[in-house]
Specification:
The complex is a heterotrimer of chains A (430), B (233) and C (540). Chain B has 233 residues and is an alpha+beta fold. Chain B contains 9 helices and 4 strands, in the order ααααααβααβββα. Chain B has a 4-stranded mixed β-sheet with strand order 2-1-3-4, covered by helices on one side. The radius of gyration of chain B is 19 Å and the shape is globular. The longest helix of chain C has 18 residues. Classes of the chains: A alpha/beta (430), B alpha+beta (233), C alpha+beta (540).
């Protein structure tokens, strides 16, 4: 089974039960092997669990790609103060829709992953921070969590081991910036979701001032299989630096958009053409954003040799990010889409840092003016310089994210901007 | 069954039957309730169920009562359960604001002040937090709040046309409530349904794979639901 | 590094802009640069508040580090090489300043902050000569926050100092940032405003731009026209260090001056708002001598000459002396008065003093309290062994004085509850004061004195701290400091010399009074010093 499409190129580890409604039920989940890894992990020492995940080379699947085992090892090895695990289910990066599917098709995998991670970092409470819009997904997760509590899989004395871990589903209220780990912590604490200055780092002082680890949904969902099969097993896919499989979210102008779990380093063109059925009939590839709106846009030519892993995409001139592949054919209006992405950042900026607060709105207004046919060529230089001024000067990297689409599109699709500026002509319709 | 092309422009598209949910790829059959998980979830206990799940209720409902007490009966129980999950009162602020909006439909100054008092927080602070988040309605909205995603993935697949269609068929401007009090349409940022472009969130439900041609049917469906509930209630 | 108490403190040594500096461990880079006299531009940082590092103006370069760091929050480490003015740092600052100006209105011609505005200063020093933004600016408009505060939202640079002051220092969280991103603005809880706050005037001081302005000061004066004189707030016994800002020989506003022991960086709204009385135009400005039922204006020489004759006369006769002083008078004035009264054979000096029925504590710095004692120098009077009489309005208790037939000496007390018959039976009634009052109607001699704003002197605050103030205004007419007049009389009576300067007058005081023994103006400096054995002080 698959949801919504099947491809035989997929290696389905975390997405195995997409499209399988029985997997949500506790009985169905257990029949499918859920909570066996938990039993194994609880019998291990927390540091050994960390070691297994470290050896797998699993990297954070939320966009930053930081090695998960290493992140867990930053936590204090004692229980002098309460530790917390936060599951980042605030999926808001444009182009990304994998965590929602993971939550609504296989909630027990996520719960199990949270429990194993909490055990590894010596946490007694895990908060799953769901974005507010995920009503349906969080309801499924909540129902599954209730079943798990009832069955003694969460809470006190899990599976009779004496380990106590509580899980709480916490709901946000609509803010992309709460997907930033320190913004998430502030939001969890009932504050405005504004990112914090680091240091201090979450492992030293996080939620409620206590040592905290924040992990993405897909990262935590990857953990049970790694515990069951071992770190080496995970390394059979991908590359040395980017091992394992990844859920690629493909959207835009392809015939079969959706989530596809593929080994890392999968070639981008094969993803588009083979797995997703290619660009729509009669259309040609123009551009691809390989990792969500915060990464530079790749031109069609740059996609040809691009392999989808952290290093490969960097070599091609962009970033893997959360592996949200947005495909654009020749009908795409690059200027409009860049303006739309800039206005997204302006809308979502928390407003703390002046370069981001003022810069994102300013960039959006310039792009809108260009789109309306009232731009000048000087505006393009201004855009480059202003977005450069916004890079590396703020508390979080939302500001830097504005630069990626703007600068890469001006560099690679300058003719589209010039067409609007010189002749008021749009070069796309979508 | 050949999968309908969901990425064409509004004029090329063949409208889905029962538009608004994304199970129709032709690769397999699932009912809407199976895809949404509605049959698994069933009806959620008003008093919150297990405390671990007590915060995760839908808070954008069709029925709103701006004078609903904060909090009585099962909602009071749910409020206490939410509080029990955090070491202090402040972290419960977002879930409690969600609960207040679930009952009242929007957060007026009075509501913010009442929540501040309940959680022993300062009113100006609560205002600062409530206005930070997009999903808190600061003023009353229609029975159905239609939030159409116009971000890049949906935008590439005709989201602007879908938005215009909603505005046209409800007879409203952006952000305005229709005369019959039923619909308010606004733009939304990425709803994490990019593979099922265009997606619109209507109250607590996602309506996916929408094209402009689907909009009248969606509106009809909602109007039918509204009149049915009106008859019952 | 060994501190004065003999304890070694850990230090770090680093290089800032090519200069080596050693600072205590835990010092931020901003403060380390400050030790060398380099002022790193900043908005959100303030020494009296926590630092969110969000204005992004104080970023400096550390050699070897990939990104610029906020110097207000980054702690200095051994061996760091810090560059506050490198090309990277300057480019960054120019960029950040440009962002501040994108939406900032060109209000300088109508903005009160002009001339003391940190945005003007920084942009003038390091900003781009031309802004590149061609887009319409966002508009928030003007909002009356209540109390004395007006908010011009368009000018706000979102440093959030005001929010943090109300949260952390006044601990009455009335302000919050509402909305998000470029729509964010400072506001109160809807109409609640700042009514009922006691210290909100400070947010006008710490606002780096003209977003928060004083309603009292609105469009009143230009900052560059004002003279600043260090002084002490005369409105209660806390003794907040302030500045009198003056122009045209009038006090235009009061501002706090930093004193980490007394008032940190703050002052209360009660004190801040009470300066109009210093500008009163109705003054006693010439010596008045009463003869044959009429008051005659005279020069000092003639007036004092006549007075001395009378004083020698009553001393010979041993006439009873009753004396009333004022807790608004300086130590020098009070000391001279006490010495003269003693010389004339008097013993007790009384004073009346207004008291509030509550106090207002600044919770975040509880040493700062708007005290119940609503006069600046009650402690000085007490240390000089004067006795308080009367009620909390500063009235009553003078029953024995009004019809006294001996000598009545009054220093600076307004005697508001007395009428023109006061002292009409006195053998000799001398009124030394600044403002005309009914009760001086029967005085034989009315001698014009300066207010505290027109003379150099000291007050003692509630905890026994002696603090100096300096003259900011020119005294009207022939008004002179009371200590000068009284010490001159004393000198004539005793055959000694009168002090010519306030510093010398203070020396006399130190010689006379054990509480002040050993102190001098030099010891007091600009932040004051405690009297000897302050623990023995009478409480409020």
């Amino acid at each position: 089974m698959a949801y919504p499409y099947v491809s035989d190129r997929e290696v389905r580890i975390v997405s195995k039960f997409f499209g399988d409604p029985e997997a949500r039920t506790l009985a169905g989940a257990r029949k499918r092997g859920r909570y066996e890894a938990l039993e194994k992990a609880l019998a291990m020492d927390p540091d050994d669990v960390v070691q297994v995940v470290k050896s797998s080379g699993l990297r954070g699947r939320g966009g930053a790609g930081f090695p998960t085992g290493v992140k867990w090892s930053f936590m204090p090895k004692n229980r002098d103060s309460p530790h917390y695990l936060c599951c980042n289910a605030d999926e808001s990066e444009p182009g990304t829709f994998k965590d929602r599917e993971l939550m609504r098709w296989d909630p027990h995998q996520l719960i199990e992953g949270c429990l194993i991670a909490a055990h590894a970092i010596r946490a007694e409470h895990a908060y799953i921070y769901c974005r507010g819009e995920f009503f349906e997904a969080s309801a499924v997760l909540a129902e599954a969590l209730e079943d798990a509590y009832e069955a003694g899989l969460v809470g006190k004395d899990i599976l009779g081991t004496g380990v106590e871990i509580d899980v709480t589903v916490h709901i946000g209220a609509g803010a992309y910036i709460c997907g930033e780990e320190t913004g998430l912590m502030n939001s969890l604490e009932g504050r405005r979701g504004q990112p914090r200055v680091k240091p201090p780092f979450p492992a030293a002082a996080g939620v409620f001032g206590m040592p905290t680890t924040i992990n993405n949904v897909e990262t935590l969902c990857s953990v049970p299989s790694i515990i069951t099969n071992g770190g080496e097993w995970y390394r059979q896919w991908g590359t040395e630096k980017s091992p394992g499989t990844k859920l690629f979210c493909v959207s835009g102008h392809v015939r079969k958009p959706g989530n596809y779990e593929l080994p890392l380093s999968f070639p981008l063109m094969e993803l588009i053409e083979d797995v997703c059925g290619g660009v729509r009939d009669g259309h040609e590839l123009k551009a691809v954003i390989p990792g969500g709106s915060s990464v530079p846009i790749l031109s069609a030519a740059e996609c040809l040799e691009c392999c989808l892993d952290y290093e490969g995409v960097a070599e091609a001139g962009s970033m893997l990010g959360c592996a949200s592949v947005i495909v654009m054919d020749e009908t795409a209006d690059i200027v409009k889409q860049v303006r739309r992405m800039a206005s997204f950042y302006a809308h979502e900026s928390c407003g703390q840092c002046t370069p981001c607060r003022e810069g994102s709105a300013w960039v959006t207004r310039i792009l809108q003016r260009i789109e309306d046919g009232r731009g000048t060529e000087e505006d393009l230089d201004t855009l480059i310089e202003v977005t450069t001024q916004m890079t590396g000067t703020t508390i979080c990297v939302l500001s830097d994210s504005v630069a990626a689409p703007v600068q890469s599109s001006i560099e690679k699709f300058r003719d589209e901007y010039l067409a609007l500026i010189r002749r008021g002509e749009r070069m796309g319709v979508a | 069954m050949t999968p309908p092309d969901r990425t064409g422009s509004a004029t090329e598209r063949v409208p889905f039957e029962n538009p608004g949910w994304a199970g129709n790829t032709g690769e397999f059959d699932l009912t809407e309730d199976q895809v949404r998980g509605a049959d698994f979830v069933g009806t959620r206990a008003l008093e919150g169920g297990h405390p671990a799940a007590s915060a995760s209720h839908a808070y954008m409902l069709e029925e709103k009562d701006p004078a609903a007490p904060l909090f009585e009966g099962p909602y009071r129980e749910r409020f206490e359960k939410i509080l029990s999950r955090y070491p202090e009162k402040r972290p419960a602020l977002l879930p409690v604001l969600n609960l207040a909006q679930e009952l009242r439909g929007h957060l007026s100054p009075e509501t913010m002040g009442a929540v501040a008092e309940l959680l022993e927080l300062d009113p100006a602070y609560v205002r600062g937090v409530a206005t930070f988040y997009t999903m808190y309605n600061k003023r009353p909205v229609g029975r159905y709040l239609v939030q159409v995603c116009t971000n890049i993935s949906c935008s590439l697949c005709g989201a602007d046309d879908v938005l215009k269609a909603f505005l046209k068929h409800t007879g409203t401007e952006l952000g305005e409530t229709s005369g019959d009090g039923l619909f308010t349409t606004i733009e939304a940022e990425c709803l994490a349904a990019c593979g099922f472009a265009t997606c619109a969130q209507i109250n607590s439900r996602y309506f996916e794979s929408l094209a402009a041609a689907d909009v009248p049917a969606v509106i009809e469906r909602l109007k039918r639901e509204a009149s049915v509930e009106g008859e019952d209630g | 590094m060994t501190a004065g108490d003999g304890q070694t403190r850990e230090t770090v040594t680093l290089t800032v802009d090519g200069q080596v500096v050693t600072v205590p461990k835990g010092t931020t880079l901003l403060d380390a640069a400050g030790h060398l006299g380099t002022r790193v531009p900043h908005y959100c940082y303030h020494p009296g508040l926590t630092s969110p590092a969000m204005c992004r103006l104080c970023l400096v370069e550390i050699e070897g580090a990939p990104k610029l760091v906020p110097s207000c929050k980054t702690v200095a480490q051994d061996g760091q090489v810090v560059l506050t003015g490198s090309e990277k740092a300057e480019t960054m600052r120019r960029g950040v300043l440009e962002f501040y100006l994108v939406n900032h209105p060109l209000d300088c011609p109508i903005c009160d902050q002009s001339g003391e505005c940190k945005l003007q200063d920084y942009v003038h020093a390091e900003g781009r000569p031309h802004g590149r933004s061609r887009e319409p600016k966002r508009v928030f408009g003007r909002d009356d926050f209540g109390a004395d505060v007006l908010f011009y939202g368009d000018r706000c640079v979102m440093c959030t100092r005001c929010v943090r002051f109300m949260n952390e220092v006044e601990q009455d969280p009335r302000l919050a940032v509402v909305e998000r991103g470029s729509r964010s603005v400072i506001d109160t809880f809807f109409d609640e405003g700042l009514e009922g706050t006691a210290f909100s005037g400070n947010i006008v001081d710490i606002c780096p731009v003209g977003a928060l302005v004083s309603k009292d000061f609105l469009h009143k004066q230009r900052a560059w026209d004002l003279d600043h004189t260090p002084s002490i707030c005369p409105n209660c016994s806390q003794g907040c260090n302030i500045e009198l800002h003056t122009r045209d020989n009038l006090v235009q506003r009061l501002k706090p001056r930093a004193n980490l022991d007394v008032n940190q960086y703050w002052m209360c709204d009660y004190g801040r708002g009470r300066y109009e009385w210093i500008n009163r135009a109705d003054r006693v400005d010439v010596p008045l001598v009463r003869s044959e039922g009429r008051s005659k204006a005279m020069g000092w020489g003639e007036a004092l000459g006549a007075l001395l004759e009378q004083l020698r006369d009553v001393t010979e006769k041993g006439t009873t002396v009753k004396a009333v002083a004022s807790p608004f008078a300086s130590n020098e004035d009070l000391s001279a008065f006490a010495a003269l009264v003693t010389q004339l054979g008097g013993s007790e000096i009384v004073y009346r003093s207004p008291q509030a029925d509550d106090e207002a504590v600044l919770k975040g710095f509880p040493r700062l309290v708007r005290r119940r004692d609503l006069a600046p120098n009650r402690t000085g009077a007490e240390l000089l062994e004067m006795t308080r009489i009367g009620d909390d309005h500063g009235e009553g208790g003078l029953e024995g004085f009004a019809r006294h037939d001996g000598v009545i000496l009054v220093l600076g007390a307004p005697l508001a509850d007395q009428d023109s018959t006061f002292g009409s039976d006195a053998a000799l009634y001398v009124y030394v004061g600044a403002h005309p009052v009914s009760a001086m109607g029967s005085a034989h001699f009315v001698l014009p004195q300066t207010t505290f704003a027109e003379q150099e002197g000291t007050f003692v605050n509630h905890e026994g701290r002696v603090q100096r103030f300096w003259p900011a205004l020119q005294a009207p007419g022939a008004a002179r400091p009371a200590w000068l007049v009284l010490e001159t009389l004393l000198g004539e009576l005793t055959g000694g010399t009168a002090p010519a300067r306030a510093e010398e007058a203070f020396q006399r005081l130190a010689e006379r009074s054990p509480a002040f023994a050993g102190l001098s103006y030099r010891d007091l400096g600009t932040t004051g010093a405690l009297v000897n054995e302050p623990a023995r002080l009478v409480g409020d």
